[in-house]
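Q: Could you fold this chain for me?
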Amino acid sequence: MQVKRKSVASTAVLAGLLLSLLNAIPAQAAPAVALTVNGVAITTATSSSTPASVSVPFDNSVDAPEAVRFSLTGIDTGSTVTVSATNAFIVSTLSTTLNPIKSNSGVASASYSVGTGTTSEFYAYTKSTALGTIIITNAGSTFTYYLKGIAGPAYTISYTAPATPYTSTISKQSAVISDIFGNKVVGVTPALALINLTSTTPTATSAEGVSEFTITYPSVPGQSALSISITATDVVGLPAAVKAITAFINVADPASALAAEKAAHAVEKAAADAALAAEKAARASDKVAADAALAAEKAARAADKATTDRSIATLTAQIASLKVLYNKLATKFKQKKIN
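A: Sure. Below is the predicted structure, expressed as structure tokens.
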């Protein structure tokens, strides 16, 4: 009975010791994450349908309006904050005069060691109006946030003029306007300058960055021209803006164009016919030469056969003469004759 009491007492002491050890192990707390853009709190960025919105760094400088600030508190001392970005970029600080942060300064992943502190901070920006993702991992906790860029001002215009339109025709045209990073810009109306053409006023660009206008070509064939342009300022350190496109257009008369096309086809046909005739003549000449060579070969073979036949006849006559002589001698000397 006494042994059992000692066993129970020992078990109780051991359980108490284990409990105290477990309580001594510090728990890993999930850090708190706060998002701001230019000092304004962002609370909806955990959903892809309500991402944080920032301007793209169209001036080639990552400043407060172009970046989401991520502030983490309550981090376990000595832990590491790991960040990965998709369609976005990570920087540890914003641009300053002494430390400029350019549009190409960011990275797709980064790690920040907390050390003896309990806080961490970084910034995320994007050059695209497409959805971007930021994933933060620390001490077993993972947080996912979304951001989206706001297109910068118009920087590039693209337009292709018709090659050879016909007189008195009407043609719908379109130009595309994008920012410095290729994002489509909405609400920009390009300017048109026309020579020997008339046109409607270009529309403001749509969500796809498209501006449309309609050209009427002159009634008389000849050369026309147009220039379509936007207002843009070159950014230091990035490719120059495409501010205008000029196109020279040869306007053709339909009847003349058709006649020219028929004439070109006739020239092509004549050249093809001449080539075919030359090929036929060459083949006929080749056939004549081949026939002559074959006839010569046949004649040579016939001559060879005649020579061979004469040789055989001579040899046969000689054999017959020898047989007659032999048989005479065989008769004389009473030997067997040969046939």
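A (continued): The radius of gyration is 49 Å.
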